[in-house]
């Protein structure tokens, strides 16, 4: 499994960010084909470093590369300019699951 962790910094207007992300960005991003998982972790508003952490999963790095290079992936990336005001960081890497017994 391969994942991309996306960390959105604290936006200048958190309520506007949340509305745009849910109402506009998610529908654009849902058009990306090939993802095997997608999680959103909304940070507590008191967190000074991050507002939202998103983890996208795909079966392999090559599949993730194809997703990001697709027309839908490029449209999703281009949309970031429309709502990101607190910065965004992308972290790419292999995913390892730890079993808890």
Shape: globular
Kindly report the spatial arrangement of strands forming the biggest sheet: 2-3-1-4
Distance between the termini: 21 Å
Structural class: alpha+beta
Strands, count: 4
Query: What share of the residues does DSSP label as strand, in percent?
Result: 25-35%
- Total DSSP helices: 3
Q: What is the correct CATH architecture?
A: 2-Layer Sandwich
What is the strand and helix layout of this fold?
Elements: E1 2-8, H1 14-29, E2 37-42, E3 52-58, H2 61-69, H3 71-79, E4 88-94
Antiparallel strand pairs: 1-3, 1-4, 2-3
InterPro entries: Dimeric_a/b-barrel, EthD_dom
GO molecular function, one term: oxidoreductase activity
Model description:
With 101 residues, the protein is an alpha+beta fold. It has a single domain (2-94), classed as Alpha-Beta Plaits, CATH 3.30.70. It is 34% helix and 27% strand. Helix 2 crosses helix 3 (71-79). The longest helix has 16 residues, at 14-29.
Could you list some keywords that capture this structure?
Alpha-Beta Plaits; 4-stranded antiparallel sheet; alpha+beta; 4 strands; 101 residues
Short description:
This protein has 101 residues and is an alpha+beta fold. The protein has helices at 14-29, 61-69, 71-79, and strands spanning 2-8, 37-42, 52-58, 88-94.
């Amino acid at each position: 499994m391969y994942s991309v962790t996306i960390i959105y910094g604290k936006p200048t207007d958190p309520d506007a960010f949340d509305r745009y992300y849910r109402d506009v960005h998610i529908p654009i991003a849902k058009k990306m084909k090939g993802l095997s998982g997608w999680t959103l972790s909304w940070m507590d508003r008191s967190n000074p470093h991050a507002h939202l952490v998103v983890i996208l999963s795909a079966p392999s790095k090559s599949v993730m590369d194809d997703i990001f290079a697709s027309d839908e992936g490029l449209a999703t990336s281009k949309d970031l300019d429309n709502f990101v005001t607190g910065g965004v960081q992308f972290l790419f890497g292999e995913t390892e699951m730890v079993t808890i017994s």
